[in-house]
Design brief:
The chain is mostly helical. The protein has one domain. About 70% of the residues lie in helices and about 0% in strands. The protein is flat, with a radius of gyration of 16 Å.
Length: about 60
């Protein structure tokens, strides 16, 4: 279990982990009426953070090439 490793995480990392956990729980809900839709998943905080980071990294790469 990860808790046994006693890894120190930043507050930002803890927030991202909580967002990922929420996304996975909502996507993997067995009841299809309660399950998150693909559209809702794409609007999740975890996915949007990744998309924003990718956009920032892509803009940085434009200046390198």
């Amino acid at each position: 279990m990860l808790n046994a490793l006693e890894i120190e995480l930043s507050q930002d990392d803890k927030k991202k982990i909580a967002q990922l956990k929420d996304l996975l729980e909502r996507c993997l809900t067995l009841d299809p009426n309660k399950r998150m839709t693909a559209e809702e998943a794409l609007k999740s905080q975890f996915i949007n953070y990744g998309l924003q980071k990718f956009a920032m990294d892509s803009n940085s790469l434009k200046h390198v090439f």
